[in-house]
Write a sequence for this structure.
């Protein structure tokens, strides 16, 4: 039982859209990821996702609205809902989602990651 | 899909050891709670728990060691591990845990809460 310091972990991340595993509990994972720019539109058939902003801000785009998520705020995207994270500047984000979640959901492209590394 | 601002939610909480439900996903709950003083020693048979400090700090006491958890840090307590949160001063804590988790685990006393309210 060791604690995890988010700022320290994020200082080790030098790329974007590449979530690292920072913890696991109850079949769920805590992942740390930096966003920059727009991601790909996608949804998850079976997983709800939580996005918590540790530093910076990003826009969670839905087909019918956009929600600006700032540091100290989180948003939960329910399964089946199409979404696209879009960050004007670099943003540090904590994800909480099932271990089975594929980053690009129903889409497979050059951003898709089949395996994630711990941090 | 609305975002949740943690500072705003914590400003609505005026008591201790009384988690509020701030979100739900994949059968897990996001709970917000203020700690102050020592809690009760307990464990959870079937649930791992994550404690993330939003503001302040507290000590997570185990039978063989104590881990100081500061703002911006989290700790995961695996199922079956006896623990006692102890906060010298008021601290704002976000919990991730299964919806079924009873706050006092294997113990039932005056701190036990059978139902939680949303916030």
């Amino acid at each position: 039982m060791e604690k995890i310091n988010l700022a320290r972990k994020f200082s080790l991340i030098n790329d974007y859209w590449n979530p690292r595993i920072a913890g696991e509990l109850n079949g769920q994972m805590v992942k740390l990821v930096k966003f920059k720019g727009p991601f790909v539109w996608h949804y998850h058939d079976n997983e709800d996702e939580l996005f918590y902003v540790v530093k910076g801000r990003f826009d969670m785009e839905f087909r019918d609205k956009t929600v600006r998520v700032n540091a100290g705020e989180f948003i939960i995207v329910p399964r089946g809902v199409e979404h696209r994270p879009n960050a004007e500047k670099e943003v540090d984000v904590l994800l909480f989602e099932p271990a089975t979640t594929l980053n690009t959901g129903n889409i497979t492209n050059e951003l898709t990651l089949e395996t994630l590394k711990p941090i």
In short: Helices of chain B lie at 6-10. The first strand of chain B starts at residue 4 and ends at 5. The interface with chain A takes residues 1-7, 23-26, 28, 30, 47-50, 54, 60, 62, 65, 67-70, 72-78, 81, 96-98 of chain B (CB under 8 Å). Chain B has a mean pLDDT of 96.
